[in-house]
Amino acid sequence: MRGLTKGFKRFFAPRDMTVGKPMTELIMFSIPLLLGNFAQQLYNTVDAIVVGNYVGDNALGAVGLTNSVLNLMLALFMGVATGAGIVVSQYFGAKDRLALSRAVGTIIICTFWAGLITTVVGVLVSRPLLVLLDTPPEMLEMSVMYLQILFAGIIGCAYYNILSGILRGLGDSVSPLIYLLLATGLNIVLDIVFVTSFGMTTDGVALATIIAQSISAVFCYLRLTHMTEVLDVNRKTLKLDKAIASRTLRLGMPAGLTQAIFSLQAIIVQSLMNSMGPLVVTTMTAVMRVDGFAMMPNFTFGIAATTFSGQNLGAKRLDRVQQGAKDSVLLALICSSALTLSILIFGRQLVGVFTGTEEIVTLGARMMRILAVGYIAFGVTQALSGVMRGMNETVIPMWVSVISTIIIRLPLAYLFASLSRSAQWPAGNPDSLYWSLLISWVSACLITAAFYRWGKWRKRAEAYFAPDAKLG
């Protein structure tokens, strides 16, 4: 019994990835993280399934239309979360308890102000942005309602993502998983109750999401307050440390800008997509929900690589960083290849979960076949970018996203659409949206690999491994 209790405590303890075999540490850290990403994806997926099956195809399209706008407004949180994960993992690896405690307190304060600003701006700009994007009239009101409710409760969502990022930076990917699984179960129940029993539409699934995520955020905070073996979270540490805040933002803002760039190009492409009609919009929503699951291993091993390299940078273990990079790429390749194969085999069935409309299922399955190989390329990009972020290099991934999305994807999407106009598709064949995306993913992979292999960032990173070098 004592051995079982000891093992249970070790399972939930912060994982020190500066010791042990890199591959083993990455796998043990990534398994609960992957399950957590799966549960996170269920939030939006369940929303789409419930409204698609109980309200209709227009409601399904309305939920999907909000993604690009929501992601753009969340760019600030993405920056804070990325910077927080890097800073926390490095201080944890360096065993600097005081700096770690101050960092966590500073990040919690910054998140509150970022959440407040995003709430006010998001609620105000939701309708104008959706109108600007030529949202189909039959979807506009449901889209606005869904988006405004999400922004009204964005602080709960922000705190979950930031605090779970801190926990992962400390090597604890299990606790966020458990809290997220509980919240996901609650979200599913509330989705069904609000829509089927109370007669709500997109407003019901939005309300369910913010309630569930706020509860998971509370659990994450309570977990941090009890991790007294590695840090202190109390009134003394919940203060703004300007130096740590500056470092967090300096490391995280390139990731935030990357998110903003992705979102801006998605908004521009969405305008093109909207011109193709409600059928394409609804199909895109279903495909992007499946796409979210296919992306899970890519983002998972990217985060794992960042945490691993960050901790070992703090511990000055360059040899482990290099081996961890190889292992991260290998894991991403294996998992993304398996999921890609599943999509190729079961594409129609996956799209059919969201709607019974045969035309949408056929179009969606074709779109997924176009993207299939791109998931493998994207996995390599995320793994290598994760290693560089953990080593304080967050600018290169930002420039890669600029090149692959703004310079490559956008022009190709409009060019392919223009060249494929026909009587059936007067605004262009929707396949053009996916061929351009596939090319941008493959391009990003090649560019990232080149930067990783030959970029000057290596010399700057290696300076941190000198015996007298300090973090900051």
Report on the structure:
The chain is mostly helical. The protein has 18 helices and no strands. Helix 9 (174-197) runs antiparallel to helix 10 (202-225). The longest helix is centred in the first third of the chain and has 36 residues, at 97-132. The model has no long low-confidence stretch (mean pLDDT 83).
Short synopsis of the structure:
The radius of gyration is 22 Å and the shape is globular.
| Overall average pLDDT | 83
Low-confidence stretches: none
Give the helix level as a range of percent: over 70%
Number of helices: 18
The shape is globular
Oligomer classification: single chain
Structural category: mainly alpha
Radius of gyration, in Å, reads 22 Å
**Helix and strand succession?**
HHHHHHHHHHHHHHHHHH
The description of the largest β-sheet is: none
User: What is the first-to-last residue Cα distance?
Assistant: 44 Å
> What proportion of the residues form beta strands (DSSP E)?
under 5%
Let me know the number of strands.
0
